[in-house]
Structure formats: C-alpha cells, structure tokens
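pinned: reference chain
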Amino acid sequence: MVKCVACHKALTLYVESDEEDEDERMGGSAGGNTGSYVDDDVQLQCGCHFHWQCLLDSYSMSECPSCGKNLMTTTPSGEQQLLCSLKNEGGLQERLDILPILTEESYLKAYPEERRCRAFLEFCGEGDIEAIVDLLNDGDDGEKDEETSGLCAGHSIDVLRYQDPIGPMDSGLHVAIQNQRMEVAWLLLLLASTLRIDQFPAAILQAAQDLGIQRQDQDGKADIRSLKDSQGTTAEQRAANIGGLWTEWIQAGRLKPPASYHTTHHGNNDSM
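pinned: its structure tokens
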C-alpha cells in the first residue's frame, strides 16, 4: 500500500460527520463514532505521495520535500506551474497546478499576520460583504474604532489598504473592480477614501448603517483610489480598461484619485 512519504501513514483523512445532518439521517441521536475516512492523496510528478497537509507543512520552493526532484514545469505561455494528481473526497483531479496555493502558504508561513489581509482580498473578489465586515470587526483588542478602520490586531498592516505582494499588487478595490463587485467597491470607497458622502446612493449608506459600519477619520491615510498595482495602474485605470458597468463610475469621477496623493504600490504596507 502506498503511504505518505512524510508521515508514513495511509493516504486517507478522517472527517467527522456534521452532527445535525447525521441526527437527521439516523432519525434521532447519532451517538458514537459517526465520522468516515476519505481519500487524501497528492501525487507529485516525481512519483512521491503526500497528505495535503503534510505537503503544505514540508514544501519549500520548487523541489519535492522527499526526493529533492525539481517539480517545476512551464506552460505554453511561459509561466511556471507545479502539476500533481490530487485525490480527495471530491474525486480525482489530474494535472492540477497547485503552485499558486503552495506559494501563498509558503508566504503565510513567513508572514502569518497577513492571513486576515489575504482573506480580505478573497472576500472582495467573491463580493461577500458580510464576511468583509465580520473580518474588519474581528479584532483581538476589542477596540471598535481600530477594528472598523481595518487594522490587523497587534499589527500595523491596514487591511483596507492591503495590496497582494505575491500577485499583481492588487488592492481590494482593484479586486472588486476586476470581479465586477460593485457593492464591495462602494463599501471600500466609504471606508477607505475621501469621496464625499453626498456622492453615495442612499441605499448604500442605509446598508452600511444596517451593518453598523461608518467612515473613520481619513486624515493622514492613503485614499484607496490612489493605490497602484505592480504595473502602476490605479483602480480607475483598471475600471476604464474593463468598461461595462464601470463606465458610469469613470464618467462620474468616483474612482478618480485625489490630486494630493501620488501613491506607488507597496506590499506589507503600514497604515498611512
């Protein structure tokens, strides 16, 4: 039987059943052991097998943590990729590129304080307003004014103005525009820009009030509209390139960076 080369255990993962679902299925209380084992097998191009978590724990750069073989290949467009066969409870996925995930996990090992920031960018792309608000309010220090300003608790990283250092240096506003998330864009303009309040639709302001969020003092902080990605492109320029629903925004000047800011892109950005 093939085993994980890291921990030498069977390539399965024990998953506990959801108690409520199990109770419903069993027609009552589902006492005792209700979990089950599912496949958890990552086979790299070198032939080595890992549990997913074992691979994340031991991966570094481009070589197999076990045999040392270089795992990188190149796409037809010249980009690097790290292909594997992944077998889990969802089935078998062959020639799956896991380089983006491994790169992010390696980065977060070095900078664990940025995990919330990266989750923030993900929520911006998904358009999950409630998750964004919950994340901004989820601080360890319990200080409401600091939480809603987007500061990571215990750190000087400003979540609202965070830019992706292992990607194209996108801000949350870049991500929202790229993914056509208009409500997220409104939220970010409310919390991290100096756009006049009278420029916001009444429905947006009411929704913000219902969520318990409001604009904090922006004095001394970079306006999110002035942040640039790795190509020197502002959110306004990104929106102009996309067009569509953003055309009216461009015409209204909502995304126009304030003239007083000339902010260049940055990665592990401190609060301004």
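why pinned: The radius of gyration is 23 Å. Residues 5 and 66 are 7 Å apart (CA to CA).
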